[in-house]
Amino acid sequence: MRSIVSKSKHIHLLPLLNPKTPPLKPSLLRHCTTTVTATATATITPPPHIITQVLTLLQNDYTTTTNQPHLLTLLSSLSPPSYLSITRQLGSTGAALKFLTFLRSHSPDPLSISLTFQAILELASHSGSLRLSQSDIVEKLKELFKMCKEGEISLTKESVMLLVGFFSRARMTEEMLSVYNYVGSEARSGVLGDVVVDGLMRGGRFDDALKVFDGMLDGNGKGRVERRTVDFVFAELMRRESRFRNVTEEGIAELVLKCGKIGVFIKGEWLCKLVTGLCRNGNLSKAWELLHELMDLGCVDIVGSCNAVLTSLERVRDFKRMNLLLQEMKDKGIQPNVVTFGILIKHLCKFHRVDEALDVYQKMVDGSEGILVRPDIILHNILIAGLCRVGRQEEGLEMVEQMKLKHGCMPNTATFNSLIDGFCKAGELDKANELFDQMNMEGILPNIITVNTLVDGFCKHGRVHTAIKFFRQMQVKGLKGNVNTYTSLINAFNNSNNIEKSAELFDEMLDTGCSPDAKVYYTMISGLTNAGRLDDASFIVSKMKAAGFQLDTVAYNVLIGGFCRRKRHDKAVELLADMEDNDVKPDNVTYNTLISYFSENADFRSAHRIMKTMVHDGIMPTVVTYGALINAYCLAGNLDEAEILFKSMCSTTSIPPNNVIYNILINSFCKKGKVDGALSLLNDMNVKGVKPNTNTFNAMFKGLYDKNLLDEALKLMDQMTQQACNPDYITMEILTDWLSTVGETEKLQKFVEGCKVSGSSSEQVSSEYC
User: Fold this and answer.
1) Nearest to 201 by CA among 162, 236, 252, 249
2) How far apart are CA 574 and CA 569, in angstroms?
3) For the domain that residue 714 is a member of, what is the CATH number?
4) Are 734 and 586 within one domain?
């Protein structure tokens, strides 16, 4: 280790680390540090003749029995600052260190020791005649600080700043932090903390820097945190890729609050970014708490943060706290800006309260509430979109003219997109197209949203060829379309039974590098399945899975239904197993489709097995389920099983039969000549409040005709008239043939006129029906 004194003196530090006098106690050290800081700045000039005598003695051998008493007498008459002056004039670090050793052996005054040591540090920090390099000086200071710690010497404020400054510039962060930690917290000034935090951050010690900064804040302002330090720390904290690795948003919020409590508020843009982050990460309660505490502390640059909280409250539909915050802003004099009004107007438009939104807008622009805010294009676009959403696109057009003339806001692409969308949804496609042309004439470039809006509008109103023509024109101009564009077109061609064109567009989408989403895949699978191209649909399924998408229940149902219609039950069952493998739960549609398929093919064992699985999976059979089985039993001529299943349905489940099931049974009973059973079912319908329809009566009329039960048929004709059930051509065909044969054509005429036909021929059913 390099000696810090002149080579000619050969004085080393080791003897100085073990002075004869005992070291000061830690409690006294803390007290002295405070005293030193306060006293060292005083300017007390000692008598010149005493200083001269002291310096003369110090230049000789002042440890002799002759000189030592005289020197001690002279020193006792001096104030502590005089020691600083005397030591500085010794001229060399070696002489100063010898003087310090003498003092520590004879003087208990810690302030004098501290000031003497300060002078030693000052002498060591200058190269002087030794022509030391900067690194040599830093090493010298490092050795002196080591001596200071071992000797428990209190440091003056100036000593601390000198050491910290040198170590900071030399990037010796460990030594700098050691000096900072050595002094008591009450002696740490804001400037000192500023230097330490700055040095630690520049040295890559971010966690230590934050610890020091936090400690400065915990001092409740006694060491006054510098504004520069706050800005320096938060500039790093609020960076997207902050090097403070272990700090959460909640931790940053606590630091912000600590700063606020000592009257230092971070920049509004940083606070807004923090509050927005808290809200987005689901910590709205912390954002609300931080915002209100800062408002209570008097933070004024806070409107952006209020806006962030209002936006989040609106998103979670906490309208009560939205109103509360708006009132608190008013009470505390926090001036809302155009963004604040935009949030409020957007909220009102979202819930179709457009007239209220227009009232807020009017008060904002005329200042009737004491707040005058100039609206911008974003706010106007919110209002125009709100008007178009409720079908008031003509008013939206009027607002465009108003914003241009009164507020100097020129419409942009978003403005025209809202208007075009409004007219497309209203079916006014020519007006939408006219706006598109106006947009181009005014030099406002359309974007993909513009294209998609018009393409979708044309497709939904049956003008698919206009849509594709427009899309091709846009492609030439550089707007290539995205997944939404192709979805609209593919779906439109599917609906027009042009699956070939849909497939062509799907391939085009892949060729242009546009990645399909789940909706596009489902649209293609559905279209191909409905067109009976099941192998092509399966191929799309494989591509969909390869792209990382999974079929949902609806998509599986479409495919299972398609394979069942094509009598490929093996593929349908395979898809059911695939659903289970991928944890996709079958629903009523899935099971009913399979039950219908097996029932139609008279495979009742498989149908009942599927129904049992359905119940086991917690899905209760529906009227469709029972209807499929009952219809299948009837078609197979097994009326006994159909009737058993029907009675089971009525007695053991809460599923009421509908007129479809009754019609199936009545029709089957009549075909089998069991007219009494059919009449009993018809009566059961009336008891249970199930209204028969024309098909019900037609089935009964056929059955009664076969049995030649005319009186029963006439009663049913009156019932049909009373229930306002209109006959169709089948009804008239059956009755005309029957009644003409038996010579009752007049009764048929009365039936057509709505008059009663059973009993007396002159009696009418009611004036309402005749």
Assistant:
1) 236
2) 8
3) 1.25.40.10
4) yes
Residue 11 pLDDT class (50, 70, 90 cuts): very low
pLDDT at 399: 94
Give 14's DSSP letter: G
Amino acid identity, position 102: F
* Average of per-residue pLDDT values in the chain: 84
Please state the rounded mean pLDDT for residues 616-620: 88
Q: What's the sign of the alpha-carbon dihedral 89, 93, 95, 99?
A: positive
Q: What pLDDT score was predicted for residue 467? A: 95
Q: What share of the chain has pLDDT > 90, as a percent?
A: 39
| Cα distances (Å, whole numbers) of residue 347 to 19, 323, 356, 393 | 77, 12, 10, 19
Range of the domain at 268: 258-334
Are residues 562 and 703 part of one domain?
yes
Question: Is 70 exceeded by the pLDDT of residue 85?
Answer: yes
Identify whether 623 is part of a domain. yes
**Domain-embedded: residue 490:** no
CA nearest to 694, candidates 744, 732, 658, 657: 732
Mean pLDDT of 319-335: 90
Alpha carbons 690 and 657: distance in angstroms, whole number: 8
Angle between helices 157-169 and 173-182 (to 10 degrees): 160
The values of phi and psi at residue 598, to 5°, are: -70, -35
Dist. CA 308–CA 275, nearest whole Å: 7
Residue 24 lies in a domain: no
Secondary structure in 3-state letters for 124-158: HCCCHHHCCCHHHHHHHHHHHHHHHHHHCCCCCHH
pLDDT at 221 over 70: no
pLDDT at 274: 92
Residues whose CB falls within 8 Å of the CB of residue 648, separated by 6 or more in sequence, listed in order: none
263-307 tens-digit pLDDT:
889 999 999 999 999 999 989 999 999 999 999 998 989 999 999
Contacts from 349-352 at CB under 8 Å and sequence distance 24+?
Answer: 349/382, 349/383, 349/385, 349/386, 349/389, 350/314, 350/386, 352/386, 352/389, 352/390
Q: How confident is the model at residue 128 (pLDDT cuts 50, 70, 90)?
A: low
704 and 573 both lie in a single domain: yes
Helix (H) or strand (E) holding 383: helix 377-389
Same domain, 575 and 720: yes
Which of 334, 353, 368 is at the close of a domain? 334
pTM over 0.90: no
Region for 225 from its dihedrals, namely left if φ exceeds 0, alpha if ψ lies in -120 to 50, beta otherwise: beta
- How far apart (Å, rounded) are the C-alpha atoms in residues 172 and 169? 8
Helix, strand, coil shares of the chain, percent, nearest 5, are 70, 0, 30
Among candidate residues 277, 304, 334, the one where a domain is terminated: 334
What is the SS3 assignment for 489-542?
A: HHHHHHHCCCHHHHHHHHHHHHHCCCCCCHHHHHHHHHHHHHCCCHHHHHHHHH
What average pLDDT does the segment 26-33 reach?
Answer: 32
For residues 589 and 718, state if they share a domain. Answer: yes
Q: How many CA atoms lie within 13 A of 135 on its CB side?
A: 0
Residues 120 and 266 both lie in one domain: no
Query: Is residue 716 located within the same domain as residue 595?
Result: yes
Q: What is the pLDDT of residue 108?
A: 66
Least confident span in 177-191, 319-333, 555-569, 703-717: 177-191
- Is the same domain home to 149 and 262? no
Name residue, tokens 């400690």.
215
Domains of the chain: total: 3
By three-state DSSP, how is residue 644 classified? Answer: helix
CA 385 to chain centre: 23
Answer yes or no: is 17 within a domain: no
- How far, CA to CA in Å, does 569 sit from each of 572, 574, 595? 5, 8, 11
